[in-house]
Amino acid sequence: MNVANKSAVTEFVLLGLSNSWELRIFFFIVFSFFYVATMVSNSVILVTVTSDSHLHSAMYFLLANLSIIDMSLASFATPKMIIDYLTDHKTISFGGCIAQIFFLHLFTGTEIILLMAMSFDRYVAICKPLRYASIISPQVCVAFVVSSWIVGTMHSMSQVIFALTLPFCGPNKIDSFFCDLPVVFQLACVDTYVLGLFMISTSGIIALSCFILLFNSYVIVLVTIKHHSSGGSSKALSTCTAHFIVVFMFFGPCIFIYMWPQNSFVIEKVLSVFYTIFTPILNPLIYTLRNQEVKSAMRKLRSKFLNFSTETPLHSLEF
User: Fold this and answer.
1) Which of 58, 70, 79, 273 has its CA 20 to 30 A from that of 227?
2) Out of 71-80, 108-117, 249-258, least confident range
3) Are 14 and 92 in contact (CB under 8 A)?
């Protein structure tokens, strides 16, 4: 029988995190707050880095692009999840489900490559400082960003093509608040063992390998910093620590979900909430709270805004 004829499912039902009305209202309030905070905080970082000439360097250029990806990652499913808490019938079309899979893997794949580029930037800055300007040029930074989106797109397309070949002819209830392959493929009318191996090989092993590379690079950087005791080394240590916290928070849930795709739905839900809702807001908090240059630039930006507001004559705002 043709696979297309077997795919009789036209929509999926998203079971979400809870059926309790009280918990749904609680989640609606909490996740709405986190989503707005994520968009505002990452937008502030983006505006700060763009407007302050002192932050026009490779590290902050990559940080600004990380904020763009974080806002995108927080937006592919969270707004729909928030709205679904106010309705009893939470469904998503087959095409919408495929779109969520595409954007999820696009943004996560792009962020993985971007985090690797950021670690390489710190490695060169600390371990090869005399060659930093020649290695990390503006053209190289742009190439990093473009390459991250290209790799993310290629990875995402492979996941979507795979999902489109799956036959869905039976249950259509997804025990999650968005569509992702680990939960969607378990509804397919084929042997899920083979699908699990595909998930491990295309996402789990890749995420684990990238994390090991990043971990090794930061170990080398930290060992190099250990042999120095100057203020610059202390600043470098703070920056690298912040980077590694971001890496660990992002890769930890991804590795667990995709290395063991048939684990508990409860665990998957918790980890999915963590890296799609919590991590995008923790990234700007970590970078701003541990980075004096960013905090200083934000204070100057706020002062300019307040001065502009107080110096603007009232009659100039009248029509």
Assistant:
1) 58
2) 249-258
3) yes
161: amino acid identity, one letter: I
Phi, psi torsion values for 93, nearest 5 degrees: -65, 160
Give me the helices (H) in 12-171, please: 21-51, 58-75, 78-84, 94-127, 132-135, 138-164
Query: Quick check: is 310 in a domain?
Result: no
Write out pLDDT tens, residues 276-319.
888 888 878 877 766 777 878 888 877 877 776 565 554 444 43
Q: Residue 143 domain-assigned?
A: yes
Tokens of 121: 């930037």
Instruction: Determine the Cα–Cα distance for residues 243 and 11; give it in Å rounded to an integer.
Output: 40
List of residues 6+ apart from 269 with CB closer than 8 A: 17, 175, 176, 177
User: Percent of the chain having pLDDT more than 90?
Assistant: 22
CATH number where 228 lies? 1.20.1070.10
- Assign 93 to helix, strand or coil: strand
Amino acid at 221: V
β-strand partners of 20: none
The pTM of this model reads: 0.84
Residue 309 counted as domain residue: no
